[in-house]
Amino acid sequence: MGNWAFEGPDYPRTALTAVALAAAGTQDPALRKVVAFLRAHTEDFLLPDGQAGAPDTRAAALLALVAESTGGNPGRSAATT
After folding, report:
1. Percent of the chain as helix, strand, coil, to the nearest 5
2. What is the pTM of this model?
């Protein structure tokens, strides 16, 4: 999901979308697509300043919430099942 305020994906909004879709109680294609996107971009979301920067704790919390709400393991790599 894009953001008009800056270029690039809006990872927090995308994570919240995944949580909302999961709360709807279905494993529909949209949810799978959003979760797959977050899996593919977990490092970009979690480490916005690259490997040398500190992890974004808000990103970690959102990714853990996505993992928990989609039946994944929030203790592992976020947004994983």
Report:
1. 55, 5, 40
2. 0.81
